[in-house]
Design a protein that fits this description.
Blueprint lengths: L1 H51 L2 H15 L1 H10 L2 H31 L7 H29 L2 H28 L5 H27 L9
Helix pairs in contact: 1-2, 1-3, 1-5, 2-4, 2-5, 2-6, 2-7, 3-4, 4-6, 4-7, 5-6, 6-7
């Protein structure tokens, strides 16, 4: 009898450990894949920013770099299989979004005070399109994994990336408006992007706070 009970307990325990490890691996895989996508997106945008000097693109670029950096705390949280670490990672995501908004806003105001020409408009529009595609793909990766793994932090990061995809389209709009002879539109669009990022900050904070009281399938 005791041998049978021991065998049953062992199998049950093994099953729990297996699910935890599987969740950890899936979470890390999603985070790393999204990081690669956003890293390649940011690298392409850096090259275009150096050539164009667009503040709208800089605002989008700063935000994309910050978005990619959120993979670090999220990856660590999933690797540790810790619900508490995952909640802290969610707060780190929110903080990264807010900091990127502050930097983008500062750069936009500085360009309004000290105007400068925006060049290579075709490449600028292409960079915005690349930003849209990269962020949309990252959003799909994060959102699907977040729902599957019941991770509020990963869901928030997915919503963040999806909103970023639409923000990147503003870079395309900036190139178009500057092309028709309204260069002041570039920093103004940069400011508009800043406001969108601040809205994303608030929405992500609500998502993370709402999920803070729920378990996430890992250790406390």
């Amino acid at each position: 009898m005791s041998a049978h009970v021991h065998s049953h307990d062992h199998g049950h325990s093994h099953g729990l450990v297996h699910r935890s490890i599987k969740r950890s691996r899936e979470g890390v895989r999603a985070v790393v894949l999204a990081l690669i996508v956003l890293g390649l997106t940011a690298a392409a945008q850096v090259a275009v920013f150096v050539a164009s000097g667009s503040i709208a693109l800089l605002a989008d670029l700063i935000h994309n770099v910050g978005d990619a950096a959120t993979a670090i705390p999220l990856g660590i949280a999933f690797a540790l299989r810790s619900a508490r670490a995952e909640r802290w990672a969610g707060l780190a995501v929110v903080r990264a979004i807010f900091v990127s908004a502050c930097v983008a806003g500062y750069e936009a105001i500085a360009r309004l005070i000290t105007p400068a020409d925006v060049d290579h408009l075709g490449a600028l529009a292409a960079a915005g399109a690349i930003g849209f595609a990269g962020n949309w793909l990252a959003a799909v990766i994060r959102s699907r994994a977040g729902r599957r793994l019941d991770s509020p932090a990963l869901v928030a990061d997915g919503a963040h990336a999806r909103a970023d995809a639409y923000v990147s389209l503003a870079v395309v709009a900036s190139a178009a408006v500057v092309a028709v002879g309204v260069p002041v539109a570039d920093p103004l669009i940069g400011l508009a992007i800043t406001l969108v990022i601040l809205r994303i900050t608030w929405q992500s904070w609500k998502t993370v706070r709402h999920g803070a009281g729920r378990g996430s399938g890992g250790r406390r």
